[in-house]
Amino acid sequence: MLLGVDYYPEQWESARMEADMDRILELGGNVIRIGEFAWHRMEPEEGRFDFSYFDGVIAMAKAKGLQVIFGTPTATPPAWLIHKYPDILSQFENGASRAFGGRHVACYSHETYRAYCAKIITRLAQHYKGEPAIIAWQIDNELGHEGSDQCWCPRCRASFQQFLREKFGGDIRALNETYGTAFWSQEYNNFDEIPLPAPTITTHNPALRLDWERFCSEKLRSFARFQAELLRKIIPGAVVMHDFPSGGLGKHADYSALAGTLDRVAYNNYPVWGGQKEPLPPSEIAFGLDYIRGLKGENFWITEAIMGAQGHDVTGFLPRPDQAKLWSWQGMAHGCEGLLYFRYRGATKGAEQFCYGILDADNVPRRRFYEVQRFFNEVRPYESVLTTPVHSDAAILYDYDSLSSFRIQQQSLLLDCEAEMKRLHGVLFRAGQSVDVIPASRDFSGYRLVIIPNMIVTDPGFTNRLKAYVAGGGVAVVTYRTAVKDRDNNLVFGKTIPVDLCDLLGLFVEETESVQEYHCIPLAGETGSGSAGIFRDMIVPQGAQTLWRYDDPFYRRYAAITRNSWGKGTVYYVGTTPDQAILDRVIGQAMEAAGLESLALPDGVESVVRGSGEARVRILLNHNETTVCALGQELAPFQVKVLPL
Predict the structure, then answer these.
(1) 153 annotated to bind ligand
(2) What residues form the membrane-spanning segments (predicted)?
(3) Within the chain, what is the greatest distance between any pair of CA atoms?
(4) Catalytic: which of 36, 304, 420, 606?
(5) Annotated active-site residue in 142, 213, 418, 606
(6) pLDDT digits over 491-534, tens only?
(7) In what order do the strands lie in the sheet containing 640-644?
(8) 177 part of the active site
(9) Is 117 marked as binding a ligand?
(10) pLDDT at 212
(11) How far apart are CA 543 and CA 270, in angstroms?
(12) What pTM was estimated for this model as a whole?
């Protein structure tokens, strides 16, 4: 089991290195991550490569018994490169260049930038080929983070036009037909006329904007693939990984596609960041972990776990004693099998001075140091359990095109598809059920319960798979604005919504309404009343049972939430965003139909079962600041108990 720290020795005097590594060993660490932001240290001038500094770092790490994750330094191109080629800098939507001085400032379409990346990676990999201390190669850093997933420069426009030329086989008439460019007289005579969807009056064509999202995603995937293939060519058998940031479902990049280029997925887990009054709710932290695990459907690493307060210019919440240790345990419970803390020691200079590490700038071990030490000691005995695959009977499906479609046309100002997914995930989380958050393109036939939220873009391949799943005995929950558009982000002529799913669901949607409140729609059902908001489908059942209906004067005849039998299975349709009590009830019914257990857990207590066969444990985590009792166990504030099953 990898347990360690992110270490930036180049930011400190070399004389400190040995004492630092001794203290990392004192923590119980066995791995360090280095190199990801050190391009200038490796190539101080163009063509003059010097790896002697990191030779010394690795030699000392080997002598101490520490393993190494080495990062390619492409997230921070050196000043001499930008000075020579200033047009490498990416551009904002208004055409202004991003200034040198931050990170991720280069345009991924720039061939010169890629050529220089290839040079530094090639020389780096050749130099360390065969080095046994390096157990993995991290490509770049947090690709697509902080707005770097989009660039609006002339090279990206030309690359986007070429992307479309290849998609449509050079047939501009096919693009015009697909996009419906007769609207607003937008017909193109050739691909060179096609603009970027930069700000304009009103808005750009939705099909064009979806292809722009796909282009941005493919650009990042291509950049990751280029690095991974180069490393594998020079170092056969190299383990290539990447450290993904949080918020992946909101990026202009399909991280699951990018993960397909990697051997390992890693995650930078920040339950709280600068300016936040309090941490994310435990269920939302768990959702992020389940999403990362779902990128490849495999266990993952956490390459940045926090221990102190974090923030660049605005610092934030200080994790309470044992709270950050609890988050580390939570990561392990959800499939992390190797964890490194960011960072070993807080910086005294540069932009991350207020990203506090295990040690402060005074270099004195205190509470956070000993908390990390305790975590390493506590978790290591459970290595065999925590490295087994996570088993889940429930899955939440997402679709990159659908998420993009809602970014393009939000429809309700309150509609946040990721927040809707988190609400659904939260019901299962509070019931003690493990959940996989996976792309809809993946096989979901083995799950007992599948939830499909707001999947506005669908195709016959997906709808047929969903029908077969339910017919075979599966239980599905489908929510509003699913199966409304085709893969080109267009409405479908001649078909009633939900497109190709009316028979499965036993209903059709007659009209829709977007509302700008959360609880403005009254609902009535056999078990009482409630409210809903954000959006609603006016559902006409055709065989489906009405569980909840609208209870306002004009729309009482329409169903709001239904259930239908199909083959051996059952499918629920949630046509609005109901209040939490109703959502809990409906998902609870779906869980019961799927034969899933629902634990009675106190608020803020999480239960996760890990392991296989007879070697299984239940991990109980108390996210509360107070002592609670759960499943017969007393848990102190932020305490974790691992119980044999």
Answers:
(1) yes
(2) none
(3) 77
(4) 304
(5) 142
(6) 999 999 999 999 999 999 999 999 999 999 999 998 899 999 99
(7) 605-612, 615-622, 640-644
(8) no
(9) no
(10) 98
(11) 46
(12) 0.98
